[in-house]
Amino acid sequence: MKKKFDIIAVGRAAIDLNAVELHQPMEKTKNFKKYVGGSPANIVIGARKMGLKTGFIGKLSDDQHGRFIMNYLEEKDVDTRGVVIDKEGHKSGLAFTEILSPSESNILMYRQDVADLYLSPEEIFEDYIKQTHYLLISGTALAQSPSREAALKALLLARKNEIPVIMELDYREYTWYSREETAIYYQLVAQQSDILIGTRDEFDVLENKQGGENQATVSELFKYRPELIVIKHGVEGSFAYEKNGNIIKGKAYKAKVMKTFGAGDSYAAAFITALRKGESIKTALKYGAAAAAIVVSKHSSSEAMPTLEEIKALIAAQD
Ligand SMILES: Nc1ncnc2c1ncn2[C@@H]1O[C@H](COP(=O)(O)OP(=O)(O)O)[C@@H](O)[C@H]1O
Ligand SMILES: O=C(O)C[C@@H](O)[C@H](O)C(=O)COP(=O)(O)O
After folding, report:
1. How far is the CA of 9 from the centre of ligand 2 (A)?
2. Among 23, 37, 58, 80, which residue's Cα sits nearest to residue 303?
3. Domain residue spans in the chain?
4. What ipTM was estimated for this complex?
5. How confident is the model at residue 198 (pLDDT cuts 50, 70, 90)?
6. Which ligand is nearest to the CA of 108?
7. How far apart are CA 243 and CA 222, in angstroms?
8. % of the chain at pLDDT higher than 70
9. Per the database record, which ranges form the Carbohydrate kinase PfkB domain (predicted)?
10. 136 φ/ψ sector (left φ>0, alpha ψ -120 to 50, else beta)
11. Residue 34 — very low, low, confident or very high, per pLDDT cuts 50/70/90?
């Protein structure tokens, strides 16, 4: 069946307000530049720029911020038919960032009662999910009901229609009540997903432990549905584990780093783009790392997403 989308993501689209003045704490910062943010939204914005056809499912506030996000998604040609406008006064999330140094950035999120966590299962439609090759679920969408049930419904519909599910662990501590609770939902969804992408720390959250070890993590998860697990280790690179036992190591590329956030979202966008275009996992790891190297050298996460040509040029220059 010819499908309309390569990937549809479920989760949050929000606002990033990134400090314009660099290398000082937020207490002193007076100027912030506004961008669309939210990890799953960033991923489909990036994947679209890299050439995939993408759609987004999420809930936005019925206000200036919600309209800013909607307009940006439309401008970037991310399909918004799955986007719902909140009619109960819930606000879209805000993320203020401070860029203290090239290796230290902090994010201060305003996510009290946010609109994205009010996406409900009634707002998830099989006809829409059916039209995609991959469904991406952000771990944060599982943090609270009814968004949790909405994400689970999307997962069930993907499974029913034999659509591979990618879980991006995307752990945001303040959205959850406890690590215990997070580990339960992370494990349930990870066990039912085909591809998992997360940092080593995020897999520790999934396992509800500290200092976990990759081989033990993947051996446990491979007892269930996952076929491919990507574990990221920041500047040290990343590993892809296949169910058949293959382990592929990916290196990080050199970058003139401005800030650290945005790496994970650009990595996921490019990794998925490569997979969808039929590239090898080794190449997908390169695309992911190269896209991240480009985004950490720029000011935003969404607007900074590179094209496939830029990704390939960076790989050619550094390999
Ligand atoms: N400072 C950096 N310079 C170059 N590449 C980086 C840097 N930080 C991260 N990356 C790349 O981005 C990937 C994902 O980064 P990581 O920090 O593990 O994820 P997240 O942003 O989700 O926490 C890394 O595997 C690496 O390839
Ligand atoms: O995900 C959010 O809500 C905020 C993002 O838009 C922000 O840019 C960010 O934290 C990116 O996350 P990362 O790619 O995992 O570093």
Report:
1. 15
2. 37
3. 5-13+38-92+112-318
4. 0.98
5. very high
6. 2
7. 6
8. 100
9. 6-307
10. beta
11. very high
Structure tokens at 240: 């892809």
Distance CA 38, CA 266 (A): 12
Count of all residues that appear for the chain in the document = 319
**Strand (E) or helix (H) holding 191:** helix 179-192
Q: How far is CA 282 from its chain centroid?
A: 20
pTM over 0.95: yes
Residues within a 6 A CB radius of ligand 2? 12, 14, 16, 37-39, 42, 95, 107, 261-265, 301
Query: Dihedral (C-alpha) 156, 239, 259, 70: value to the nearest 10 degrees?
Result: -20
Q: Answer whether 252's CB lies under 8 Å from 237's CB.
A: yes
Show the tokens assigned to 169.
Answer: 């662990």
Distance CA 272, CA 162 (A): 18
Cis peptide, bond prior to residue 25, ω within 30 of zero: no
Tokens of 129: 């999910």
* Two tokens, residue 184: 């339960």
Strands 104-110 and 94-101: antiparallel
